[in-house]
Fold this sequence. Notes:
Layout: E1 5-12, E2 15-22, H1 30-47, H2 52-63, E3 69-74, H3 85-105, E4 112-117, H4 133-136, E5 163-169, H5 172-180, E6 187-191, H6 199-207, H7 209-212, E7 224-225, E8 233-239, E9 252-260, E10 265-272
Antiparallel strand pairs: 1-2, 1-8, 2-10, 3-5, 3-6, 4-5, 4-7, 9-10
Helix pairs in contact: 2-6
Amino acid sequence: MRKAFYIREKRAGRRVKCVRYQRPLPRDTGRARAAKKHHTRAAQRFINCKNSTEKLELLFYANFDSPLSCFVTYTYDEEHLPRSRDSAKANIAKANEQMRREKRRRGEPFPYVYTTEGSARAAAETADVGGNPWEVCPWEVPEQWEELSGKPTEWGNGEVRLHHHAIMLLSEQDCDTLRAAWPYGDVHISRIKVDDMHSFERLASYITKDSRAGKTKTGERSYTPSEGLIQPEVHGRWVEEYEDIVPPKGAILISEMREENLYSSYHQCSFILPREAEIKEEYRSPYRTRKRKQ
């Protein structure tokens, strides 16, 4: 029997997005071809991550799903408050370069993602963001997470002291080195709860909030990644009609949707693999139903 169904998968660490659908074939009638094209477009939209927040979430899963994963906030004291946003970016770039040299000396990689927030117009006496839990350990302020769904406004007048947020992999020794590399103010470091299925999703929304609030230029990325980060992988293969998408035992289901019509069917599924499931190859369903009797 000729394979008529197709499964596409996007994998970023333990985060998996799968979609199963029927692609148009040369022998299809006009109606069948139109129905299958509809599901093909839906599958492409599901796999393609054009949304900056979802793209960043997958980047987190691919590179920072580790007990060493940390949320870092760099702040400035009044003496070192930059006069411009570009000056602030130069400061964190210099600090990252110092960390990179130290990690390279020990033969270790230094992956990171950071963003710069705040305004150079903020008065010097503006309250230091280091004293705000939302800035240094945001998951401890659950009442503010819902505001991230729209266009968040953290500060009523928009004038807050310049600061930086970063996601990094840091040992205890690295934490001391990082603080020594930042002479401009304080460095707040918190361990990320990577086993909480919402951690990376929320932090991706947090890091991109300025973009959604319209504080960045059109087309400008709201965060800066280090070079060499692992990117999500996309695989695809033809399958038999009886093969479906079934997350492995212990996986955490994030979303699932099925849609069928007279000529075609569509099944999308997004989930997080259990940590012990070291699947190096592309995901393949462990489940096979019996073939239908002809």
